[in-house]
Amino acid sequence: MRKILLTALAAASISVASAQNSAVNSAILNHKNGTLDKALTDINQAIEHKKTKDKAKTWFYRGVIYQDMIGNPIYGKLTDENTPNVVLESYDKTIELDGKDGEFGKQVPERKEQLYSQVLNQAVEFHNSQDWANAIDKYKLASKINPTDTTAVIYAAYAATANKDYPAAVGFYDQLIEMGHKTEDVYKNKIQLLQATEASEEEVMNTLAAGLKEHPNSVYMMQEELRYYLKNDRGEEAMQKLDKAISADPKNASLLAVKGNLLERKNDVEGATATYKKAIEIDPNNFDANYNLGVLHFNKGAEVNNKAAKLDYATYQKKGKALEAEAKKHYQAALPYFEKALEIQPKDQATMQNLMKLYTRLDRKTDADKISAMMNQ
To answer: Which residues lie in coiled coils (predicted)?
Structure first.
């Protein structure tokens, strides 16, 4: 009698376990048939039961079922903003239980890649509608799903900047740097944000130093660093540092262009002109040297024109025409440098504006109209 009783208990135990395993199998079958609501009910029962809650298979299919409901025209209404988190949790638990090389664990990377795309697309939709808070949340989740991909972090930084949450944007740029994504734009954007948040000069200078270590030829960062030196009456130190860099790399046109800018700030127009010309000799396509040299000649012309404009009538009759002719020579001298600058950077608005002024002052209306049309495109 005792033997019969034990056998009956064992049979009952097997029956319960089998019932729960069938819940997982039923979930898989309903998922395969496209009845995701039934699959969801089955898998949620299995995930709660002690016999199946610690099975990799249960967690994997929980992730699959929830994931396949995202964006589904019929069953999408059963999801909410937390659904991607549920999916990610399910796949992480699958790996924990099954390992990366288990039957279900090895299927997780492909599924996570799909999830990353789904969440990133949701983030982009929020981004395009300028719902910055939700966009940032989705970008964060996308980055959590795929911590090695920089796309979500970059756009999170853009969204935070658009939302004027500058400290958050700086945090995203720091994350990119930690990930090894140390482009010039990352440092440039971080520096501009630090300046916008009135961060300490030390923090800005440290970021400039780190950026210049990665991008020693960055004109923007060199100029910003020099600006801080000049602001703190460290102009000589700035020039010494720059001269040392040029001595080590004398054929570097970008360094010479920065030096020309520094000389210009010190009101050494003659020295700046010579340095810009040297930069152009080394690299005719250096935008900054061409543009700045054009500005120097243009300003000389404007200065002479202003003198002529301030003359009284009697003096103008004697000297006015000569001054205007002199101004015109400076404008003519500026013209090829601005034209070359526009050739190098065809969409630069400042160059086009200066060219339009020059063409107008040189009575070249057709060329001025052409530039005006380009600016309005």
So the answer is: none
